[in-house]
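User: Predict the structure for this protein chain, please.
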Amino acid sequence: MSRYGSRTRAGQAVSTFGQPPAGGVPTSIEYLVIAGGGGGSSGESGGAGAGGYRSSVSGESSGGGASAESKMSVTEGVTYTITVGGGGALNTNGTNSSIAGTGLTTITSLGGGKGVAQTTGGTGGSGGGCADAGRGGVVGQGTANQGYAGGLGSSDATTYTRGGGGGGAGAVGGAANANISSGNGGTGVASSITGSSVTRAGGGGGYTTGTGGAGGGGNWNVAGTTNTGGGGGGGAAGGSGVVILRMPLTNLYPTTLTNATATVSGSYFVFTFNASGTIGWSQ
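Assistant: Here is the predicted structure, written as structure tokens:
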């Protein structure tokens, strides 16, 4: 990559380019910060919660039914550290994603809560579902402005278990129905930050028949989708998170940029971090 990187347009690579129109260092940029989804427990388990979902894209929503946040302030000469959280392994919450830098109040999305059986589901960006509600299972709670709680599981008199779904960024995890059906994962939230609408951060489906929530949640015994923050289905791991930044083409292209895919969408540069990296601007 040259100093000013490479870009793609309409899905096709475009050759390296020089400095864009002199608009100077951006004063603020839009972001989407999604943490890693939680993992379900081995065996009979509720689905895991999706990673926390925070957005400052104008006209869109953050998780948990919240409105878009304020844009991220940018200071010339500061290198911002982008952390992309991993999905949780079995019986483990997902890992946080964040944007940090000098002078910036760190923007953190919390990892999704783990799915459980006869204990309390993990609290996280979205909460983990439980199974065996009749024998001590309790849903995990989501975090305000990031995601919703998990769904309640059930046990019948013969101890047959159905797990509740993991919470999603856009909805509570579904509850199980006795020995009839497991809970589905809560749905995620859609964003057009990259130029097309993509739903991310869905919760995982509960044991044994639950379906993952739209937005990367895993079906029962299926992992959450990579780089969506999807919660793992009952018995499976969570999906890793993602951080996406957007700024007008009239701004100076970053002079520091690592581990990001740069694209052009309409009148915006879009920087997608599927792994941890850095970004910064200096004239």
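The chain has one domain: 1-283.
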